Amino acid sequence: MTDSRRKSKRRRVTEGKRAEASSRSTPAERALRKLAEIHINYYPYILVLMTTITFLMILSIPSVNMETDIVKLLPSNIESVKLELAVRDVFGTADKVFILVSLDENCAATSTPKEITSPAIIRFLIDASEKLSHEPNVRSVVSIALPFTSMGYVPADEGMIKSIIEKAGLDSLISKDRRSTVMLIDMDVGSSEESIKRNTDRIRQIMESVERPACLKYTITGMPPMRRKLFELMLHDMAYTLGLAIIIIFVLLVFLRRSLKDAVLIFIPLTMGVAWTAGIFGWMGWKLTMATVGVGAMVVGLGVEYGVFMVERYREEVERGSTPPDAIRNALPSVGSSITGSGMTTIAGFLALLSTAFPMLESLGIALALGIGCMLFITIFFMPSLLLMESTIVRFRRGRE
Predict the structure, then answer these.
(1) Whether the predicted pLDDT of 370 surpasses 90
(2) Whole-model pTM?
(3) Cα torsion 161, 163, 167, 169: sign
């Protein structure tokens, strides 16, 4: 029997087995077989398309915002929360900013004030209060300098200053050791993180522009600065946890698979899935919360198994002697149906969080379901083409050798 006849017979046997398996397969497996043929015939175009989509997703990542307003993360059906939101809609989001002005105990300068009621400090407070009051978002500024602003001058006698402050009922703004005082600023800082940052930075600029007496320091606090700090911590933790998860999982993949190439092949769809999840958040205008800053690490940990199963099944077929296209034909229907079922049940479980009364948990459910959905989609619609491209590159290199 000639080689051509042997090949023809082997092809007929293979096609017969494939037809028999197709007749026993489920609708999902038949659909995945058709998808496998699309990967085999058009994998370069699929890679270009998926890479372009990933690039577009990456472009929208900088527009992802974070929600640090605790009130908006509470159940909206609670009467007190409803009232708070209604008041904000009518009167704006007024917030208190506190500026703690105190004497530096570690200051080595000579002839420094001993108490916060020094005439030089009062004049500093007057200048700072006037500049702050001229800001459009500032509604009022209260400090121990308030009566002296009305008087138009500051007495040189510190005892008289103390008496005026007590008569004005502002002595409660002075600490017991009389070395610090607080300025109360009532202002509308806005609801977005950008406006909070802009307004808190503006307060700091104003305080820096006022000449301070020696050994006098200040600290800005209150809910707006705390929200800004929370925003910075959330960004840091999101990047740190995601980076740590990627490093640990990648090292484990290299160790367990004993192949750097397989680890890279598994990780490319993983990073794309994270980029797609963040990109969709950016395009949709959804906000991350304190509950969702760790979603990147969770999605990577949950979604890595999809790529591991796909690569493992593909390598098994290749080791049995199948060509890369045949390996995809056999691997995608079997593994694809399994990981699809696993992924859909996982997504359904996370979507159950939408029934909770807490918006924070709702956002967590949406983020996890979206992340797993992106990982699953990319594994099925991108990874087979990536494996075929890898085999093409290997054949090209061997041909050159």
Answers:
(1) yes
(2) 0.74
(3) positive
